[in-house]
From TrEMBL:
Pfam family for this entry, one: Aldedh
Source organism, top-level taxon: Bacteria
Keywords from the UniProt entry: Oxidoreductase
Stretches assigned to the Aldehyde dehydrogenase domain: 16-496
Family: Belongs to the aldehyde dehydrogenase family.
Organism encoding this protein: Streptomyces alfalfae
Name assigned to this protein: Aldehyde dehydrogenase
Entry GO MF terms: oxidoreductase activity, acting on the aldehyde or oxo group of donors, NAD or NADP as acceptor
Length: 500
């Protein structure tokens, strides 16, 4: 059953354009039914989109902050007006539960446009202390004033992830536009229709032609053209580390600016004095939120030995209360994975854990939902007795799977030995996006947090402060966004100096 009848067209230069290479089916992960037909752009159409963005940049970058703010606010209002229809489409494309589609996809997108409507009005200039320069080869003695001024980067290609087509795209497009950039959006092929709805809302709000362009396709050439076009000055990407590395190589050839939010393998350190209810609830979000398809999930639990078995028991009980099923049905907590291929990938990791000697405490099988046997479901899975060299501990699974690694308690001769053991295990990873620390000793929790090699650390919480910088250490990314940090990410800093 199609949510929106008729094949989708590309959005290039302010016009809805027929794709050169036809369409591909977008499939509902819960029912395996066709949601709609997404356009397959040609390389030439992607270059045309980038050229349109380049042409529009000259005028858009000269608009006033007030003009950009008003347009972003209007776009937010249009999206909110149609939010229920948008949530239904997001749910059909991604398999998200109703609450997630409404509250964490569309509502977050609206909030981000509203945030950057205000962000467009943030100061762009910072006065610097004057400097006294003595006479010399550069001229007479003088007092020199200086300003640091933020300028737009230019044309930004935004490559978005499949797990949240609304919030992820909004988190790139809104701050980029607020800073005076123009954009080419290349959505994930699994769920691009939502991003076209966002473009339609911007069109209705009055976005000038070429300021926002959307091109899509399953062919790798589409993404390559969106990244490699000579008209593109910056690439903002959310996705896997492997793809991010390839994009970085292309950007390096012409020194394009990059913002990369890549993979994660979040470590949740649980000390023996932790509030286990809080820890279980936080870790349990991995099983339910986006069915574990989220890079910030605490998928790697590092538990101190005195609470290890109790933590496993409570996590097992927690899983028992999670209803796996049709995301449209009331009471469903865990929906499907995005595709059959990804389901097989997740299942292969569970099997890998078994072969490497870990214990699958619960889950891992394919649950039958509504008796139909359709949909890409994997039961929430808890894997225990893991070692730090196992694939389930080292690699990002991106599914409802948690691997638990035990560590020993404090040595009486060294009260901080448990901290050292936990830190060694947590930092033994290629990733460093967000880690978590659970302890009743807040001083210890903050002490450990400051030493973790991660872009963010949650202390006794998995909650996010949406003004805090977001990004990763190591192979989890390059740069920071969210809040005002996103405005900095989508800008260049220019120095202006004059004699005082």
């Amino acid at each position: 059953m199609s949510v929106r009848p008729g094949p989708q067209r590309l959005f290039i230069g302010g016009a809805w354009v027929e794709p050169d290479h036809g369409h591909h089916e977008v499939v509902d992960p819960a029912s395996e039914e066709v949601v709609g037909l997404a356009p397959e752009a040609s390389r030439e159409q992607v270059y045309a989109a980038a050229a349109a963005a380049r042409e529009a940049f000259a005028s858009w970058s000269r608009t006033t902050p007030e003009e950009r703010s008003a347009l972003l606010a209007r776009a937010a209002s249009v999206m909110r007006r149609d939010s229920e229809a948008h949530a239904r489409l997001a749910q059909a494309e991604t398999g998200a539960t109703t609450a997630t589609a409404r509250g964490m996809q569309v509502a977050v997108a609206v909030a981000r446009f509203e945030r950057y409507a205000k962000g467009a009005l943030e100061p762009l200039e910072q006065a610097l202390p004057p400097q006294i320069n003595p006479a010399g080869p550069m001229g007479k003695a003088a007092v020199l004033g200086a300003l640091a001024v933020r300028q737009p980067v230019g044309v930004v290609t935004c490559v978005t992830s499949y797990n949240n087509p609304w919030a992820n795209a909004a988190g790139k497009v809104a701050p980029a536009l607020a800073m005076g950039n123009t954009v080419v959006v290349k959505p994930a092929p699994q769920d691009p229709l939502s991003v076209y709805r966002m473009a339609a809302a911007l069109e209705e709000a009055g976005i000038p032609p070429g300021v926002v362009n959307v091109v899509s396709g399953t062919d790798v050439a589409v993404g390559e053209a969106a990244v490699g076009s000579p008209d593109v000055d910056m690439v903002s990407f959310t996705g896997s580390t492997a793809v991010g590395q390839r994009i970085g190589e292309v950007c390096g050839r012409t020194l394009k600016r990059q913002l990369m939010e890549l993979g994660g393998k979040g470590a949740a350190i649980v000390f023996d004095d932790a509030d286990l209810d809080a820890a279980v609830a936080g870790i349990g979000t991995t099983f339910s939120f986006y069915s574990g398809q989220i890079c910030t999930a605490p998928t790697r639990v590092i538990a101190q030995r005195p609470v290890y078995e109790r933590l496993l028991a409570e996590l097992t009980a927690y899983i028992g209360h999670l209803r796996v099923g049709d995301p449209r049905e009331h009471g469903t907590v865990v929906g499907p994975l995005i595709s059959a291929a990804h389901r097989e990938r997740v299942e292969s990791y569970v099997e890998s854990g078994r072969k490497e000697g870990a214990r699958v405490v619960t889950g891992g099988e394919r649950p039958t939902v509504s008796g139909s046997g359709r949909g890409f479901y994997v039961a929430p899975t808890l894997i225990a007795d893991c070692a730090s060299d196992m694939r389930v501990v080292r690699e990002e699974i991106f599914g409802p799977v948690v691997a638990v690694v035990p560590f020993d308690g404090d040595d009486p001769k060294d009260p901080r030995s448990a901290e050292e053991a936990a830190l060694a295990l947590a930092d033994d990873s290629d990733y460093g996006l967000i880690d978590y620390v659970y302890s009743g000793d807040v001083a210890r929790a903050f002490r450990v947090a400051r030493r973790l090699r991660a872009g963010g650390v949650g202390v006794n919480t998995v909650g996010r402060n949406m003004e805090a910088p977001f990004g990763g250490f190591k192979r989890s990314g390059v740069g920071r966004d969210v809040g005002s940090y996103a405005l900095h990410a989508y800008s260049e800093t220019q120095a202006i100096v004059w004699p005082g």
